[in-house]
Amino acid sequence: MKIQKNIQSLKTSATLAINELSQQLIGEGKEVYKFGLGQSPFPVPRVIVDELKNHAHQKDYLNVSGLLELREEVARYHSKKNQYSYDAQNVIIGPGSKELIFQIQMALDCDLLLPSPSWVSYEPQAQMINKKVHWIESSADSNWHLSPESLDKACEKLKSVNKLLILNSPNNPSGTTHDNLREFAEVAKKHNVTIIADEIYAELDFSGEYKSLTHFYPENTIISSGLSKWCGAGGWRIGTLTFPNELSFIKDSVRAIASETYTAVSAPIQFAAVKAYSEDHSVFLSHSRLILKAIADFVHQELSSVGVGCQKPQGGFYMICDFSNISKISNKIKDDKLLCQVILNEVGFAMLPGSDFGLEKSKLLSRIAFVDFDGAEALRLIAEDQFSIDQLDGICPRITEGISLLKDWINNN
Fold first, then answer.
1. Same structural domain for residues 176 and 136?
2. How does pLDDT run along the chain (413 residues), one tens digit per residue?
3. Which entry of 1, 42, 61, 90 is 20 to 30 Å from 71 by CA?
4. How far apart are the first and last CA of the chain?
């Protein structure tokens, strides 16, 4: 009965809801600048698309864990990137990393620890299965990531319970990276915390480095990843879980749940995904990072210039914006949801309130996703050495126009 009530109280995921609302408003003829949904603007690399076409005839159910050839490539990829030896038998392919993270939560008897802020779906997933959630506060001063000290303090209070922590870096919603991973790993090891390392944005770290907690705490860390962000294949719905041998018992439970729910991921997509892991996409990734960094720097500079507090993004395509220090706004608006609604109504600028990510409503924080541009055209220009931050007006006009209108609104209020 409790689970039923929890499910009935759920609403459509905030990121999906803002996208649907934006599309509705556009359909009504209104001008909307889409800074809400974090969908990759870049096309799926051609070699992967061609492979999907070549395997469109594949119609059979595949192994519940996933196509063996794909799992072998995923294991090889993560063994290199995560600096630990992974086996194909400990890889599971699922219909998006969101579904797989939910299945881990179902499989484990534990409380969930979440940094504040965290991605919008982690907590609702826990609520659906009546799992206790403990938020651990972070701030702009800690780059919107948990400090080792904060984790240690929270774990000391929860000594008697099994603990699962989801750690996402580069982070959604902040776009920042977790830099003190070694110290963080020591605390996690001290308290025997099982961790899901949500590394869906790891290849979009602007530094080009692959930073992971597994470099220091592999034995109790599950890697969640997929093709939605770096590969632009969000709509393909394919995600991966990679387990160390020490956690193969969790893999077995997740596999059993998968067998009774989604059965297997679409066969053609799995065959195509082999190319995502076996081919060299370094140029595509390097160009994607350069484009995103240029846009991130522009957005950060422009909004900072009118008093919006924000940490410069270090990866991905998100940023947290703090409107609380703009007195002429904070004196009139006391709620982040109202702030976002007013800005959407008056500017046509769609973004999400910080409270959707576990932050306090009164802090007037929001998350923006700077992806409303033609990624294919941007990649073409950078490949031809014609991409310049001074030409962003022509390359991503929806970004520059939206930011300019938001600045005007701030200045005129």
1. yes
2. 566 666 566 566 666 777 787 888 878 888 889 999 889 999 999 999 999 999 999 999 999 999 999 999 999 999 999 999 999 999 999 999 999 999 999 999 999 999 999 999 999 999 999 999 999 999 999 999 999 999 999 999 999 899 999 999 999 999 999 989 999 999 999 999 999 999 999 999 999 999 999 999 999 999 999 999 999 999 999 999 999 999 999 999 999 999 999 999 999 999 999 999 999 999 999 999 999 999 999 999 999 999 999 999 999 999 999 999 988 888 899 999 999 999 998 999 999 999 999 999 999 999 999 999 999 999 999 999 988 888 898 999 999 999 999 999 999 97
3. 42
4. 48
227: closest CA among 195, 196, 272? 272
Residues 53 and 181 in one domain: yes
- Whether residues 226 and 130 fall in one domain: yes
In this prediction the pTM is: 0.94
Residue found under tokens 């991130």: 296
Q: Output the DSSP codes for 68-120.
A: HHHHHHHHHHHHHHTTS---GGGEEEES-HHHHHHHHHHH--SEEEEEES--T
